[in-house]
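Quick one from the shared queue. A colleague (R.T.) flagged PepSY domain-containing protein as missing a structural entry in our internal table.

Convert sequence to structure tokens.
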Amino acid sequence: MQIRSDVLRIYQKVHLWTGITAGILLFICFFAGALTMFKPQLSAWASPPTDILPQIPVTQVDTLLQKALAQHPEIGKGFTLHLDDNKYAPLTWYQSGGGRELNLDAQQWQATLDEQGKLLTQKVQPSQLGTLIDQLHRTAGIPGDVGHEQLGVLVMGIASILYFMALVSGVIFLLPTLVKNLFALRQKKGASRFWLDTHNLLGITALPFHIVIAITVVVFAFHDVFYDALSEFVYGERPVFNRVAPLKQPLDISHLPLLSDIIATANRHAPGYQAQSLTFMGLDSPRPAVRIEMYNEAALMRGPIADFLSLQPYSLQPQFSTFTPGETGLWGRVVSVFFGLHFGSFGGMPGRWLYFFMGLSGAMLFYSGNLLWLEKRRQQQKGTTLPQQPRTVRLMAATTVGCCLGSVASVAMTLLAAKWLHAWVDNSNYAYLWSYYLCFFAAVIYSFWRGAARAAIHLLRLTALACVAMPLTAIAATCFPTLGIWAPQTLSNLMVELVALLFAFGCSYSARLTCQRAYHGPADSIWAIAPKANAQSTTSNASAC
């Protein structure tokens, strides 16, 4: 395809400046987003085995509710039932707060039955590690609220608009050479060419994924604006959402049908779907509801993990569902498809692993984009004297390394701290927050202090050490039970340790490559470390990698 060179230059500038403006925030969100594919597994991994009461057969859930209600009448307001999922206790409820929103101080009650049918209850502080990583994914770690919205979500909405512009302009810029150079990874033509080929390959091969992510994040961030527009131009006087009429006389939990009947009703609602968890809300209010997570591995589901079905818990009349054909209309199905493609909630565990790697490749796309921007603006050596790199380039390099690699190292340190701090602090959820932000700002400061090249090597090594320390912690927990830490008890917990080990190898190898480039690559590179003058230092530099 032929496009005029002046037009291509315009699209190239748009691609460069939109990418560099939003790249660092998008890196953090994509890296954290990859981890949120296993959000429940991470929270379960960070919880001591004693903090999750064992599951029971579905046939015993009615007995469990009756016995728990007799001892804890507050259950009559609302509770959650988890079915055959060892990441949760079978019956949970909150005396105050908790539930779906992030609450670092939440105290959760749990109940189950032992082998003799005796009621067991306990109060725990549930780990919010998975939810905090999800917050990092949605806000890039930017704190604060604007009205009822999170500031970070709004910022990421703007960043996603730039992200979409970068995608479109990047594709147009590549069109003339797309077919010829798409799968070319030309290592022999220098590091810059290799990074450019890698950047192009990651972007083009995952283009549909990136377009879906960009559009859906804009919708998530500015949904109020879209709803107002729909109300103004489409629905007019009609309400955008149909609310069920309230009960004339509130009922109480004694009128609730058997849980087994509610589960059977939900499972009959759509073929192939199975109830996964049931959250009863406002049981003593005029608007009672049970929100049921419905799972179907063969379907494209709207939620992060499952579809949703809402029933009136006393009459079992359906109120809302995200998966029943015809109930949500054409636009509802379009929205469901886009949301499902954003969350990666299809294909079961293989689908979640696919999105995990897609998230990491997206993070790599933004990081490589920043590296290319920096390389393009450095001063190249033209004689025997090394040039002084522009201040803006040095600052941008330090920001890129400090924020991108700093966020990766901070998450790794927080995961490691999750087990070691549990025995030493009253509230592990606050410890997660302190651990992440202290490590993150320390990494940014270190990057500005020591320079991008040294910081990149050291932060990659720090991440590798933190990751390899996770499986070592599990070994220590097995050998020394009195330490107050715990070893993996389930296959999903063990997978967290194994993935951490793979990350350790990956980061260690990346640190070695970065070190070799810093000491033995082009001396005028922004990533070069200038050799010291004396012979002893020269020997030290040679063996640094």
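The CA atoms of residues 276 and 293 lie 5 Å apart.
The chain has a mean pLDDT of 89.
Added to the table.
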